[in-house]
Structure to design on (296 residues):
């Protein structure tokens, strides 16, 4: 059972600081080394938004043998195995549309160029994104008028800026990660910007929708901003992503970080149930169990 007892933290540990414009200009050049996503991502997103069946999604995935193998691997890994699955349709039915979308994204956006550096482990990064995406879709049920699909998409990409840091070893400054002060403080010291700033550059390079870029930009805001100050169009989805992020980190699906905080009290009125009950919801626990065995 989750104990939501993170307590108060200094604002500088949960709020991104202003980036160095000069550094961002340099980083923008490095981001161009990231390959553009494969066409299968747009096809898959369009299909899921239109309510496509597992069979219809499988037909898209089957056009790419490597992606098909990744989906089958996920469906047959660890604790998920009851009977071996050799068909993509059934694999999607076993792991769910949300987790499948994460695997498609990992395949479509997993540029080899980002493996060059050692700042962030890309397997950990993608598993965290998939975890937040899956959990955000479940948590959306407890937030009236929350678009679960949008919340899942924002969750998938919220930390994608960290991929960009693996491209820029020549601009690194000496810095040591302290888990008590967290990744934002570390990133600012080492790169003169945070993964939020880098995420905007990556999103623009990949030509992601403006709503996704906005979600990347604001995903830390629920920690320190009044709910009323966030855009109404994605306010509910940002809350779902923020809560999913906390739960994923707490469950060990992400880069370790003690500098996490409960949402600003103004968000409490947006939830249909107490936060502790949501955190221990049966569906949340089921998804966490599946994620425990997922390999990306």
């Amino acid at each position: 059972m989750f104990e939501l007892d993170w307590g108060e933290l200094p604002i500088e540990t949960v709020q991104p600081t202003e980036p160095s414009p000069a550094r961002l200009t340099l980083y923008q050049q490095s981001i161009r080394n990231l390959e553009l996503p494969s066409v299968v991502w747009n096809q898959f997103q369009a299909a899921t938004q239109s309510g496509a069946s597992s069979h219809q999604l499988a037909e898209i995935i089957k056009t790419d043998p490597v992606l098909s193998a990744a989906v089958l691997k996920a469906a047959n890994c660890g604790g998920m195995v009851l009977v071996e699955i050799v068909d993509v349709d059934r694999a999607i039915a076993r792991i769910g549309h949300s987790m499948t979308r994460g695997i498609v994204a990992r395949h479509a956006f997993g540029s080899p160029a980002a493996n060059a550096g050692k700042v962030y482990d890309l397997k950990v990064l993608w598993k965290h994104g998939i975890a937040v995406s899956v959990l955000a879709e479940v948590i959306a049920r407890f937030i009236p008028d929350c678009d679960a699909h949008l919340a899942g998409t924002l969750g998938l990409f919220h930390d994608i800026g960290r991929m960009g840091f693996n491209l820029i070893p020549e601009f690194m400054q000496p810095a040591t990660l302290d888990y008590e002060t967290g990744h934002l403080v570390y990133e600012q010291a080492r790169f003169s910007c945070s993964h939020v700033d880098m995420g905007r550059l990556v999103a623009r390079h990949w030509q992601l929708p403006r709503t996704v870029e906005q979600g990347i930009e604001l995903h830390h805001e629920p920690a320190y901003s009044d709910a009323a100050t966030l855009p109404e169009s994605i306010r509910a989805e940002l809350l779902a992503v923020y809560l999913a992020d906390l739960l994923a980190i707490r469950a060990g699906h992400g880069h370790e970080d003690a500098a996490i905080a409960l949402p600003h009290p103004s968000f409490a009125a947006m939830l249909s149930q107490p936060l502790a009950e949501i955190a221990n919801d049966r569906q949340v626990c089921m998804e966490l169990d599946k994620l425990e065995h997922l390999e990306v």
